[in-house]
Fold this protein.
Amino acid sequence: MSAAARCVVAVETPQHASLGGLLDYLCEQPLAPGTLLRVPLGRREVPGIVWDAAPDSAATDGQLRPVAEALDALPPLGDAWRRLVDFAAAYYQRGVGELALAVLPPELRKLDNTQLGRRVAKLQKLPPLPPAADPPALPPLTDEQAAALAALAGPGNGSTPALLHGVTGSGKTEVYLRAADAALAQGRQVLVLVPEINLTPQLEARFAARFPGRRLVSLHSALTPAQRLRHWMLAHLGGADLVLGTRLAVFAPLPRLGLVVVDEEHDPSFKQQEGARYSARDLAVWRAVDAGVPVLLGSATPSLETWQRVQEGRYRRLALDQRIGGGAMPRVRLFDMNTLPRERGVEQPALAPPLLEAIRQRLERGEQSLLLLNRRGYAPVLHCGACGWKSGCPHCSAWRVFHKLDRTLRCHHCGFTERVPRACPDCGNLDIAPVGRGTEKLEEQLAALLPGARVARIDADSTRAVGALESQLSAVHAGDVDVLVGTQMVAKGHDFRRITLVASVNADAALFASDFRAPERLFALLMQAAGRAGRDAEQAARSEMWIQTWHPTHALYAALKRHDYAAFAASQLDERRSASLPPFSHLALVRAEAKTVQAATEFLNAAAALAAGASHISVYPVVPPAVSRVADVERLQMLLESPSRPALQRFLAGWLPQLQPLRSQHKGVLRWAVDVDPLAI
Ligand code: ADP
Ligand code: ZN
Ligand code: ZN
């Protein structure tokens, strides 16, 4: 039997296969690019997507295999979607087929064409939502909001990304809503990206309240597979007007895309940390520019990459400098921990006496306090004073954390958990002691220091159960909590009305971290945390942000005290420029995992040898990451740097395909991967 046509199909092929995941197949009739398929690959049948029109050459038809099934009940994925995947695959150095199929809802693979057709028909028949009885009342825009929206609607709106720069409570969300309204009025779809699932419900609620007649769907990893499929299909079929989601939503097919919003654009969660390590923020910008539609990046503390683009005139800055209702940012108070009396063998108090007093004042006034400590558990390590034993993880180069509530020692890297030993496992000493302080201990100490106060804790441990976070947050909102202890989880996004004091208990830890982005992240976190206090204008006057520090004169804290993001950014960018770090250079990180340090090192050194002499590329020595052994696997990494993004891209595209064959010569290597524009190095 001779088939009538050929097509180029994107299929999942193993990582970095030289084929890139595009294979030719025969089909009975020409299939539109973007059509979903099932095709034979080896002895299996795998999903695929028609990627291109067939090449003209008639050769080798005889060797091509026919398509198994065309899933053409689903309208083809559009050109814009395929361009996005093509770009992302090339930029992040993955196969087109691998990436294309990885970003589809997994449930899609389970359906045959008939089942698919039934779903499509059902979703296409969904009746429009009834318009709201009373349209929502809109607040009159502030001058700054009006100016931002005018700029967004003005010339250049589809080609120059806009940074919406404003602190918490400055009215950014209102600008998103108005911009969305304009896009919806033109019959367009709106894509809104948020960094974390936890932040979707509140934004979803505000969009739903503003646009009652519009269909809004969410896309994130906490949906059931069936929900995710349904929401994705609604986006693709055009039935959804608003799509709100986490980083994976950047790949939602949107045939009528009219606006892209990235809220908290600086947040590291936009970077995918496994598989194709893409930045959803950067892809969102690319996608909007490609589609010629406006993109709004919102933040109080933009990423330095974004800020530098503003300096260069490649992005526009739309400023919201005033908080709505005139509320001021809280006063920042640096408490110098060096002034506390020190006694040998006596642990420093969790809170300096003046800070404790400030919390007591809040208690008396019926106001809330938020204490931030970025370390969960009771204590980061247990220690035997007699023999020096410490609670190391046998599988990782890390300490196991003492969790007092369930009396366990837990490794936060590999999960290895044991009951706390009653005595030192090495010498039998009964007096093994926790060293340092985590959120559990802070909670316990606060309860002792503030009798009668209602102390609560929110961190990854307290919120493990489904719905736990929501119920804990609503207890805070309802005023059932006086003092809240939490990790950075609570510093982000939540709109607490009654908090007038925020304190960072141990901020310094990030000041001297080896990662060059640590100060940027600390500044963003502290600004964001400060934004939690005094959102109510009347309370703003007496709101405070406390920072306990041993380095009160540090430039980062000085800028924070003045709420001066621009000064902080300028000083950081100076440092980055002189050290040739991003955004003034471009990085790629190659990671290798092996049973032994030697195997991973040899592989990376051999890879480095293949890179020798490449122009405009610096290859740094092989080094271990901060935690080098996890779950008995040794991890090593090698950084590549280039002053030119295209030069780095060209180099990687030629070099990486040589690494897969190299790996087969280094049998001990379990895995390797490249991370383009790595966030943590
Ligand atoms: P952000 O997103 O920057 O934190 P929001 O848009 O949530 O700021 O605005 C903060 C608060 O002010 C919200 O309660 C919002 O409803 C209100 N708000 C925003 N814009 C206006 C306005 N122009 N007039 C009155 N209230 C507004
Ligand atoms: Zn001991
Ligand atoms: Zn471990």
